[in-house]
Design goal:
mainly beta, YerB-like fold, 11-stranded mixed β-sheet, 6-stranded antiparallel β-sheet, 4 helices, 23 strands
Length: about 350
């Protein structure tokens, strides 16, 4: 069976013997002179100590997975369209982290690349005001977008993100129109070319989440789960845990969500951050600084708790109901940003079609 119908799984884990001699002796006096014992000479053997040095693995900051060498390039964020005419998309399964945010009666993806390339990536669409706060913790990422209104353009260009919009990067970034799609849902680019446009001194991102070690047990605050239903603006999202693949599989609008290679969109972790939205004109603006309720789906379990973030430059901190930091499974992560109250988790053995979206 090909990857068109399956998702690759990711595997990923002196006794001292004491010898005792028993000694014997004579049992009485004798008329004859005692015969002196012959004593063997003492031999001293120097003890050899061997020290083994274990070199810790090099881990990718945005996945927690081992890599052959440190990743020195900056993060790259591509704004990817989720309009029905933009599906299937390029690059969602290659991203380290994907944020799904509400826009005008639809959702849009901010796909964060660092470990892998995606040639092409897209369809690429416009930025939003909420992107500035959401992405600032990635340490001046390259921002790949089609453009925006005057206010959004001003905010993005004055932020710490590096503007690699269609108008700025153009041919050098591999921007082009895909002939099989209609505009504006057909703009694509190449991450391998876009990375060559990074400014001098561009640095890699810091880790955005904590990850469990291979031998680390799942804390007792975890709950059983089979997945979650989310009502985003104009899109119904379902994440289902697959025991076969050890990953969460995504559907939207009651259909399996696949990429251009017909591979199901899948993730090691699904982090649901319930946020308040305000408005800027017609556009929703997610409030991602402060705190709120968090549901973290990892290793087939659910942690309920809170997210906290004092500043846009800080990664999200995730804490469970006991106040402990929630650690993710090494691998890729989807971060969902629904409105408050728009998610329902369900237990194993439950048919997800048996209940409504919230």
């Amino acid at each position: 069976m090909t990857l068109a119908r399956r998702v690759s799984t990711i595997g990923g884990i002196a006794a001292l013997v004491l010898v005792t001699a028993c000694g014997g002796g004579t049992d009485g006096a004798s008329d004859e002179a005692a015969t002196p014992e012959t004593v063997a000479p003492t031999t001293t053997v120097a003890e050899t100590t061997t020290t083994t040095t274990t070199i810790p693995p090099i881990l990718a900051p945005l996945t927690g997975l081992p890599v052959d060498a440190p990743l020195t390039r900056p993060a790259l964020v591509a704004k990817i369209d989720n309009h029905p005419k933009a599906r299937p998309q390029w690059g969602l399964n290659q991203a380290d982290i994907v944020f799904e945010e509400n826009v005008e009666m639809l959702t849009r993806f901010a796909a964060v690349f660092h470990t892998n390339d995606s040639d092409p990536v897209g369809p690429i669409r416009s930025g939003r005001k909420q992107d500035v706060d959401l992405l600032e913790s990635l340490n001046s990422p390259l921002f790949v977008w089609s453009g925006g209104n005057a206010e959004v353009t001003r905010l993005i260009r004055s932020s710490t993100m590096v503007d690699l919009s269609h108008s700025s990067a153009n041919d050098a970034g591999g921007y082009r129109r895909e002939s099989s799609r209609s505009a504006p849902h057909n703009l694509i680019a190449d991450t391998s070319k876009l990375w060559t446009l990074a400014p001098e001194g561009a640095a890699p991102p810091a880790a955005q989440f904590a990850y469990r070690a291979a031998d680390e047990a799942i804390p007792s605050t975890a709950r059983e789960t089979a997945g979650i239903k989310l009502s985003m603006d104009g899109v119904r999202v379902l994440w289902e845990w697959s025991t076969e693949f050890g990953r969460f599989l995504r559907s939207q609008d009651d259909k399996p969500h696949v990429d251009v290679d017909d591979v199901r969109i899948n993730s090691a972790n699904v982090v649901v951050l319930y946020v308040q939205y305000s408005k800027s004109g017609y556009s929703p603006v997610a409030k991602t600084i402060g705190s709120g309720e968090a549901w973290v789906f990892t290793a087939g379990k659910l942690f309920q708790g809170i997210w906290e973030r004092a500043d846009a430059g800080d990664p999200f901190t995730l804490k469970d109901t006991a106040g402990n930091e929630i650690k993710l499974t090494p691998g890729n992560t989807w971060v969902e940003l629904p409105r408050v109250g728009k998610g329902v988790s369900y237990l194993p053995g439950t048919d997800p079609t048996s209940f409504k979206y919230p």
